[in-house]
């Protein structure tokens, strides 16, 4: 946890009040147990809504422990900025808000990213992350006025801090007086080795068979990471996924690749083409995607 710090932004005084995490990474792997285990984190990143509820509530409890409620008349809650299709981190917002609402009035909002991401952020170098994410590509959805607001920004992991900085600058531009950053995992000790994030993502879902088991669960809620991972599968694995995944999941993915314009992104282009060809032979997904 970091204490309050401040800096001038234009004519305003902005403060980052708290940086809190459920787990701090000291080795390049999460423990097998604990509040956030390696297995649990990976399943969460692949759309396990049950774990999203558990983690969101745990973050809510952590925030309440670290804040002086006499200083907070209301709270605005958001999560990692995204384009059209929400990331796993956004599934933390609702359970977090429900947990803290008994103590303080809460509203939620979204931060949107303009443009198309050039690939998997978790696999990018520090330099590539700076190019991919900047304050200029972030904006508060609907131009929401945050003047004087205390804001909580939820995310799954902090590695280089690039996304955190972009969020700070976006939120302050919208008028936020103070921003608290809450994470499942603080891995900033590995900022020079940011692909540790990619390895954590795969801990419980290393291959297409594990991915199929995840998407077949009743607790599965699709997100941008799952969609993009599928679009990067080798053709033989993609064929296996399309043959085994539930039709509603395939239909959602057809719509997701269209909304995020993944066919324009080099690492996904071939996968999107193959995915569309494979699902074109199936009646259900095509109808779901155009409904």
Automatic annotation (TrEMBL):
InterPro entries: PRTase-like, PRTase_ComF-like. It holds the Pfam family PRTase_3. This is Phosphoribosyltransferase. It comes from Leekyejoonella antrihumi.
